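PROTEIN ENTRY
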Amino acid sequence: MFNKIFQLILLISLFISLPAQAETTLISRVVGKILIQVESRGEAWYADPEDLKKYFLGNPQDAFGLMKIFGVGITNKDLSKIQVGLADYTGRDDDADGLLNNLEQALGTDSQKKDSDNDSFEDRTEIANNFNPTGQGKVQIDEKFTKNNSGKFFIQVENLGQCWYVNPSDNKRYYLGSPDDAFLIMKKLGLGISNSDLNKITTGYFYNKPDVTPISGTATDNDTGQTIYQAGEAIRNNQTEKVISHFSRNMEPVIRYTMNFLNSESKFVWSEMLTGSSLLSSTETEKIYRNYVYFQNEKIEIKYHVLKQPDGTWLIANL
């Protein structure tokens, strides 16, 4: 049992130590871009411009999840300062102008007319040449604003929450509609990178607050979610005794050893593993939470068992 726990502790440490040699010049070259592993199977990663870490995009859901995590709200006025990029999408195109209905809704054009402003130029043609498809003249692009937001994801707060990606390679914004479209477009816009360079960039992990929505309709499901979340917060804040209080009593020696063994950044990763987990299954005496991490391109499943104690409290029974 201790051997397995030590292996997990070692794995947490490796998450930090292996990619810690990131080069400043490399980061500045790829920041905000989608990276494609050309020496592997074409796996896609996102280099976040905020924390300078890479995030694995294994499937369309990952791509869509990335938008939810990193997306920043933006007004239509500010969004219009960035030139629109066009790509091949899938979905309905009622007026057959090469622009999907939901893209036209995001752009403010008429999905039932090829030429929304009746100026004899189709909407797609005007957009491709940076003309206003709903009025006169060219669209006023703000190059400084675009550059400052290169590599970011934007959410249209004044519309229906449509998402856009500002591609650093051409300084255009690309509409990300469905998960499948988002995934395909990100890979299409990707920059090839070698495994050796990719390994120089620290790996980040998707996380959200735990799912505390009751499954059985009892308050105890919420209690277990709070136990998981509070344990993660205590780890992040280096509060050893508080961490111990959220685990089964027999786990105390292991938790104390782990807290002494890990450095602050490794503790942060461990905390993210806990707080990013979601409720997988639920019984009257046991709740199982699950999370995934990516290590050396391998997806690893981690489960946390939260058990009901004789006094009615819930404690985590494993690392």
In short: The longest helix spans residues 219-236.
